[in-house]
Amino acid sequence: MAALDFDPSEQLTSLKQTLGDITSVLDLDRLRAEIAELEERAGAPDLWDDPDTAQQVTSRLSHRQAELNRVASLTRRIDDVEVLTELANEAGDAESVQEARDELAAIQKVMDELEVQTLLDGEFDPRPAVVTIRAGAGGVDAADFAEMLMRMYLRWSEQHGYPVQVMDTSYAEEAGIKSVTFEIDAPYAFGTLSVEAGTHRLVRMSPFGAAGKRQTSFAAVEVIPLMEETDHIDVPDNDIRVDVFRSSGPGGQSVNTTDSAVRITHLPTGIVVSMQNEKSQIQNRAAAMRVLQSRLLLLQREQEAAAKKELAGTITASWGDQMRSYVLAPYQMVKDLRSEHEVNSPSAVFDGDLDGFIAAGIRWRKQRDDD
């Protein structure tokens, strides 16, 4: 059988070079040392005496091991596809050549994602994320849009295999949601999704209004890093107001016969956090306090950064009221107004196809910060 002329040597060389750059940034020696330290803590006989601490240690260990395994897996896959290509060419096996092409494309996709991750060098970027979506102007269409965004991020998380926990949902009366808060427990979830924060705009023919009339509606997305045990924000009891109420579902129906849901208001800042996902009031209060501390910690860091910029005389432009537009009528388009990334398939985006927008947003932010 005649040999096939399939030569991916240049692509393989490029992949190896990129992987070398990535491993240098990730600092594998430091990563292995952190894993060893976490494994020692996880093996302590009294670890589960404190379930919250135990969960944080085991979760962090799982995240770090996943990072290391991802790099090791890419190294093996590049070596394997190189051997597969040589054998396929020698045997003249077109099917194996196509298999090699497909594997190279898959490796390139994972490599691109990992390369973007190396741009996430902020203090909190490696953390899991807490995402809150709130309906804005636009009435029932805005509430429906908020629910569409929630499904979009949940589908994106599902496609990447990231665990998600919905922590609180406030349903609108007619359709959609007023707000939702959920946690994405994955390495670099905050750094990755932080570029999604801002005001999102939807333009479409409203399914709720008069026929043939376009409706513009808005929803706000907030992304904060999840607090860790080592972080500390002092929240005095007299700075908060705690309200308890019954959990509710769509249409305002009660889904709990006890007052287990908790709403905490931080009086000095006006920050409000509600939790109703857990079964007990104590669990909901603990979860709400953790999110409140996360928001206060992020607010503190932002204030410190703003003060430093002010002292340095640096003025940076704000992101503006709208960071992305989703247009369903009279044409089909989703466009990020910062990075200029644009696609003509809103249905795919709403089904979780966000990687292009996220990567473009991270690169845009990095370039802006470097200028």
What does this structure look like?
By secondary structure, the chain is an alpha+beta fold. It has two domains: 109 residues, Release factor (Methane Monooxygenase Hydroxylase, Chain G, domain 1, Up-down Bundle); 225 residues, 2-Layer Sandwich (Alpha-Beta Plaits). The protein is 48% helix and 19% strand. The protein is built from nine helices and eleven strands. The chain has an eight-stranded mixed beta sheet with strand order 2-3-1-5-4-9-10-11. Strand 4 and strand 5 form a beta hairpin. Helix 2 crosses helix 3 and helix 3 packs antiparallel against helix 4. The longest helix is centred in the N-terminal third of the chain and has 41 residues. About 3% of the residues have low confidence.
